Amino acid sequence: MEQRKIDRINELARLAKQRELTAEELAERDILRKEYIEDWRRSTIAVLENTYIQTPDGKKHKLPKKGS
User: Fold this and answer.
1) pTM for the whole thing?
2) DSSP, res 57
3) Rounded to 5, what percent of the chain is helix, strand, coil?
4) Structure confidence at residue 64 (pLDDT)
5) pLDDT at res. 68
6) In the chain, what is the straight-line distance between the N-terminal and C-terminal CA atoms, in Å?
7) What SS3 class is residue 62?
8) b/e burial code for range 11-32 (CB count within 10 A of at least 16 → b)
9) Residues 35-63, mean pLDDT to the nearest whole number
10) How far is it, in rounded angstroms, from Cα 66 to Cα 68?
11) Helix or strand or coil: residue 60?
């Protein structure tokens, strides 16, 4: 996610503490939050897919997916 968008999320959060947000600001905040969460999930999944567990005998095993 672009830093400009993260800055806007933070700006809207500060405004929400000072006053009630307008309908347009609420809609913008929701869109930006959803995009941020999707980006976070994508990057977290990428990290987990490249995570290996090393056993004491030196063998490396790929981290199993939840429910597998």
Assistant:
1) 0.74
2) T
3) 65, 10, 30
4) 83
5) 59
6) 31
7) strand
8) ebeeeeeeeeeeeeeeeebeeb
9) 93
10) 6
11) strand
Query: Contact at 8 Å (CB) between 51 and 40?
Result: no
For 11-48, how does the pLDDT look when each residue is reduced to its tens digit (9 = 90+)?
999 999 999 999 999 999 999 999 999 999 999 999 99
**Token pair of 31, please?**
């869109």
Using DSSP, state whether 59 is helix, strand or coil. Answer: coil
Query: What is 2-68 written as a DSSP string?
Result: -HHHHHHHHHHHHHHHHSPPPHHHHHHHHHHHHHHHHHHHHHHHHHHHT-EEE-TTS-EEEPPPTT-
pLDDT given at position 66: 80
Q: How many residues does the chain have?
A: 68
Output the six-digit token pair for 37.
Answer: 């969460």
